[in-house]
Specification:
Blueprint (H helix, E strand, L loop, with lengths): L6 E8 L2 E8 L5 E2 L7 H8 L8 E2 L10 H4 L3 H9 L2 H4 L3 H19 L5 H11 L12 E3 L2 E3 L9 E6 L3 H5 L9 E6 L12 E3 L11 E9 L4 E8 L3 H4 L18 E6 L1 H14 L10 E4 L2 E7 L6 E4 L5 E2 L4 E10 L3 E9 L4 E6 L5 E7 L4 E3 L7 E11 L9 H16 L7 H15 L14 E6 L2 E5 L3 E5 L4 H12 L17 E3 L6 H10 L12 H6 L2 E5 L20 H4 L12 H7 L5 H6 L7 E3 L1 H22 L6 H25 L13 H6 L3
Parallel strand pairs: 9-12, 27-28
Antiparallel strand pairs: 1-2, 3-4, 5-6, 7-8, 10-11, 11-20, 12-14, 13-22, 14-22, 15-21, 16-17, 17-20, 17-22, 18-19, 18-21, 23-24, 23-26, 24-25, 25-27
Length: 689
């Protein structure tokens, strides 16, 4: 009988009967404490006769006489990779064992227990499992359709709380914190739940007096500080044992794994410790408010890829006038690297982390670019947060260009889930935005080679860079505005297919940047995103375009002007700004329909195209409604139907209708509704069924 990796089986004689005894490597195999002494349960689980959500991951290298083990063995997975028919011929019961094995392989991969070849097997087996098949176990949690194992669609892992006994019965892994490991389709996620932020406040109820800071000093060469911090209960390092890690979004720019958690109690404890123990009054002054309560817990194994040079994206709350100025790193394990941390392009280097006096802390100004490497011989585990300060309203300025850069970065970060080739580009966008915010250079940095996505929604094609949206002229303003909001926030309406999805789109592999070229591409159309569609000349002539510039979703900027700086809300900075209008020369419109005969273009005059901005909404109905629109997007487009959502959706509707009236007045024409969508379909967009 085959036993799993990292599990040893010995036997002892009990009155002539051989009784198996099991031991395992607890750093690699999780066994719930209540089952650790249950020899009967352990024996059945390790023999594959019982599948448990409390003992994992079990990796079987080879097939044996037990069919249950053979179906989840690496040997069988290699056979299936060579001949997929073997998977297709499996019965429902056999497929279940096969998929549980894939689940355990995923967990093993997250723990760094698989070779490169075995990780390739995991990927190949995952792509064989289709979430739409009837034999797939699916549950609904937090309005998401989830599975207990990865599938072709459900590839993103999340840890969620759930009190349903059915989750246990259906073999969803549950850890010691009572959190279930589930797999979701990224297409189901919206802007508010892409990141899996786990609330761990319950673990820090007794850490008020847990920390003491000593040996606080400033390092020569920059605004960088180090200190030692006593953690009486080692509570921070103990988080490692829960194995909440998941591959981060930006895997191309960093190695290792991480999870994100929130804890206001930990934040309060660290805040009080800094205020009481740090003597530097420039760092901990009257404007210092708190340590950010969202923490990033990172783990790098030896030889993991380094965390490439980057800037930390600052925290900002315009309502409370809070922003982050310093990054806080807490190293929980000791080790050596060359270097462990490099700050400000190597001006400050830390080559060794000594934890003999407790946790090693580092604080540095967020205007510094920095990078880090894994330890040479040990696991590198550290916690990241930031110090948040209060700012004065007149202390900062708003910059539209930086806002655009940051919006593109946020948008492309989400799109990189569907287009991995955008991952590095999204990371570069964040760096450009961060560097521009803190004004390291006199000239604002421009994002090179801005990438465009060609998308299709209910037959309506559009092009976007994550900030600007280009539509054809045959779409109404309400429809264009709705699609803009739905696409930018990646909104969804329920977990079922009751609403059309925006196609993931095709990256336009082109250097085109001018609006004229983009509009030409949009009007020519793409068949399978590459081949030109045949469009009748008459139809093509009417397909002039309208450009809608998205309102500033993120109205903030942090710059440096003899000190730290942060932006004020653009609702104040732009309130009295006149609407920008851009007339297009007749030759530009003709370039879209250059193939038309002169006789036709002379008969049909094209109306002047105007650059229409959603700032018109702010100008017409005031700053208050503009802010309500932001709230409405959060509430109405992503949640269930409630009275609050109806009000929020109505506010958006009023705002967009008024914007349309302004546009009609400017045009002097009465626009017919698009044939693609119903005239009143905006209500369907804003108010979910």
């Amino acid at each position: 009988m085959s036993t799993p990796r990292y599990v040893n089986c010995t036997t002892h004689n009990d009155n002539g009967k051989l009784i198996p005894q099991y031991t395992w490597d607890s750093s690699k195999i999780t066994v719930e404490q209540s089952l650790a002494d249950d020899t009967y349960m352990l024996s059945n689980v390790f023999k594959g006769q019982i599948i448990s959500p409390h003992i994992y991951p079990l990796i079987f290298d080879s097939k044996c006489e037990s069919e249950e083990i053979s179906l989840r063995s690496l040997e069988f997975y290699r056979e299936v990779k060579e001949n997929k028919e073997k998977f297709e011929k499996l019965s429902l019961t056999q497929r279940f064992n096969f998929m549980i094995g894939v689940r355990d392989l995923f967990v093993a991969s997250c723990r760094g227990l698989l070779t490169e070849e075995e990780n390739g097997l995991l990927k190949a087996m995952t792509n064989l499992i289709d979430s739409n098949d009837k034999d797939i176990i699916k549950k609904t949690i937090q309005n998401l359709s989830v599975t207990p194992y990865p599938t072709l669609q459900n590839k993103m892992v999340k840890f969620v709380p759930c009190n349903s006994q059915a989750m246990i019965d259906e073999y969803f892994i549950r850890n010691e914190l009572g959190l279930f490991m589930v797999f979701v389709d990224p297409g189901q996620l919206s802007y508010h739940n892409f990141e899996n932020i786990i609330n761990l406040d319950s673990l820090f109820t007794k850490c008020q007096d847990n920390f003491i800071i000593q040996n606080f000093k400033k390092i020569e060469g920059g605004d960088v500080y180090t200190f030692d911090m006593k953690d009486a209960s080692s509570i921070l390092l103990s988080l490692d044992k829960y194995n909440l890690y998941a591959p981060p979004f930006n895997q191309l720019s960093r190695g290792g794994q991480r999870f994100i958690f929130s804890s206001e109690k930990l934040s309060d404890s660290l805040t009080n410790t800094l205020k009481e123990c740090v003597p530097n009054k420039e760092l901990i002054n009257g404007k210092f408010m708190f340590v950010n309560y969202v923490f990033r817990y990172n783990k790098f194994k030896p030889n993991d890829k380094k965390f490439a040079s980057h800037y930390d994206t600052p925290y900002h709350d315009s309502k409370k006038k809070h922003y982050s100025k310093y990054t806080l790193l807490l190293y929980l394990t000791p080790g050596v690297a060359d270097p462990v941390l490099s700050v400000d392009k190597g001006k400050v280097k830390i080559d060794e982390i000594d934890c003999s006096n407790g946790i090693r802390g580092v604080i540095f100004d967020q205007r510094y670019e920095h990078e880090g490497k894994s330890f040479i011989e040990a696991d590198k585990i550290f916690l990241r947060s930031e110090l948040v300060y209060e700012y004065d309203q007149n202390e900062f300025t708003y910059d539209e260009k930086v806002s655009k850069q940051f919006n593109i970065a946020c948008y492309m970060n989400i799109q990189s889930v569907f287009h991995p080739e955008l991952e590095r580009y999204a990371s570069e966008c964040f760096n450009y935005a961060a560097e521009s915010r803190i004004a390291l250079t006199n000239n604002k940095m421009e994002i090179p080679d801005v990438k465009l996505l060609f998308k299709n929604y209910c037959g309506t094609e559009f092009i976007t860079n994550g900030y600007d949206y280009w539509f054809k002229k045959d779409i109404s303003l309400e429809e264009a505005s709705s699609i803009l909001l739905i696409d930018y926030f990646h909104c969804k309406f329920g977990y079922q297919d009751s609403f059309y999805w925006i196609e993931k789109g095709k990256i336009i592999d082109s250097k085109i940047k001018e609006t004229k070229e983009i509009l030409k591409l949009l009007n020519e159309g793409l068949d399978s995103f590459g081949k030109k569609k045949k469009v009748s000349k008459k139809k093509q002539a009417h397909q002039t375009t309208m450009e809608i510039e998205e309102s500033k979703i993120n109205d903030t900027k942090i710059s440096k002007e003899g000190g730290s700086e942060h932006s004020k809300d653009s609702s104040e900075g732009d309130e009295d700004k006149e609407e920008e209008e851009e007339d297009v020369d007749e030759n530009e419109d003709k370039s879209v329909v250059a193939s038309e005969p002169d006789s036709f273009t002379k008969k049909k005059k094209f109306p002047k195209r105007k650059r229409i901005s959603l700032k018109t909404t702010q100008k017409m109905i005031g700053m208050r409604i503009r802010m309500k629109m932001k709230i409405a997007v959060v509430a109405a487009l992503t949640q269930n139907l409630t009275a609050a959502n109806i009000i929020a959706g109505t506010l958006i509707l009023i705002a967009i209708v008024m914007l349309k009236q302004v546009w009609k007045k400017q045009k002097g024409i009465k626009k017919k509704p698009s044939k693609n969508l119903k005239r009143n379909s905006l209500l369907l967009y804003l108010i979910p069924k």
